[in-house]
Amino acid sequence: MSWIRETAVSEAEGKLAETYAALIEQRGKVSNILQV
């Protein structure tokens, strides 16, 4: 269990959404460990 609030890809906004989109483009998904 994480002590940090995790933001799902579908809930991301702004810079975080851009970062998630770049990860999806490069790797095909956002790994759980990167969802913060």
For this entry, give a set of tags.
0% strand, 39% helix, globular, mainly alpha
How would you explain this protein's 3D organization?
With 36 residues, the protein is an all-alpha fold. The protein has one domain (1-36). It has 1 helix and no strands. The chain has one helix spanning 14-27. The protein is globular, with a radius of gyration of 10 Å. The mean pLDDT is 90.
Topology:
Elements (H helix, E strand, L loop, with lengths): L13 H14 L9
Report the principal-axis shape.
globular
Q: What share of residues is helical?
A: 25-40%
Structural class: mainly alpha
How far do the termini sit from each other?
13 Å
Instruction: Specify Rg, calculated over alpha carbons.
Output: 10 Å
Poorly predicted regions: none
Q: Approximately how much beta-strand content do the residues carry?
A: under 5%
Oligomer: single chain
- Estimate nothing, just give the exact number of structural domains: 1
**In DSSP terms, counting alpha (H) and pi (I) runs of 4 or more, how many helices?**
1
Mind summarizing the main beta sheet?
none
Mean pLDDT: 90
> How are helices and strands ordered from N to C?
H
Number of strands: 0
